[in-house]
Amino acid sequence: MRRVVITGLGMVAPTGNNLRDAWNATLEARSGITRITHFDPTGMKVQIAGEVKNFVSRGVADAKDERRMSRFVLLAAAAADDAMKDSGLDTSKNAERYGCIIGVGMGGLPDIEANAITLKDRGEKRISPFFIPYAIPNMAAGYVSIAHNLKGPNLCPTTACSSGTHAVGEAFNYIRSGVADAILAGGAESTICALGISSFTALKALSSRNDHPATASRPFDNDRDGFVMGEGSGLLVLEELEHAKRRGARIYGEVVGYGVSGDASHITAPPERHEGAFRCMTMTLKCAGLNPSDVQYINAHGTSTKMNDQYESEAILDLFGNHAKKLGVSSTKGVTGHCLGAAGGIEAVFTALSIYDGVMPPTANYTTPDPACPLDYVPNTARQAKIDVALSNSFGFGGTNATIAIRKFS
User: Fold this and answer.
1) Is the model's pLDDT at 189 over the cut of 80?
2) Is residue 269 a part of any domain in this protein?
């Protein structure tokens, strides 16, 4: 099997409109969660979210075309532009060897909401002919592939909150097996609208700390009361090692393992002790040829919900045994919120940077330990550390799970 390395990173997140701003804010535990501005949330139970602030498109298309693109597509296009520039990959030749896999959980939900209102209030003749391209999730991969001449594998995993991690893992498999030489992969999402917030509120999944938005997302903390919805995009250029070396590319790390599993338990809740997560992480280590003791850091799914955080912690304890207490386990959702289909992409970028920069990002807002979550969550302050191997976990509604392993390149 061929080796797969990371040669480009791009991000647009609630913590920053570019990679380094978002990463630095995350390391400093500076929250990107504020009162919602995308619509007026007055009177709603939940009025906070992790919005991308002051977003300016990178000009992936002309102004007319951009007016026809959903926000999640524009966010993906911006992250893609940054990742491709960072990688220096030339796609003007051999374009059929380069692909694009961008996971999206829900697609253009704000556009679905808006057009449903238009249909009800103004009739079918007022529906935009561009509504379908606005709404369908694979438009992020579609537009980005056009913009960067990526004619190889073109996919959109839509696996709820695992979408971004599945995208990275599938890209790893395609390159490793020889189908492609490089793939731009990750996730994108933008569902902060009245329908999106109200729907997750009805599930009792969201934090309602409206008076203290910056401290509302509290992964693994005893006082956590739900996740905070976020938006953004995180994308990585994955590339076959020899292909990258021939062109002198910078290498952030090597993707060495990928695991997937299904809970077959419940539509929205993880099973006790999260045996699906246990199997997913186990599969990843086996794929990578690693032992549990080889891992130093886990970027956890860590949503700030009661069950997820406890059961993910238990799965880590079950798999890693005594070594679990030596792990750094943090959730960057404390500052970004939960970016749904984009979460796995954003967190894969953070995991790669953790290894490259030698630092574990903190779990923000961790003040009261939960006896049911007894691990080292790197509370509130980033920690310098030599990280040889890290995992990144994502789990989604429907019981879908994904884990990737990244190793320091040598």
Assistant:
1) yes
2) yes
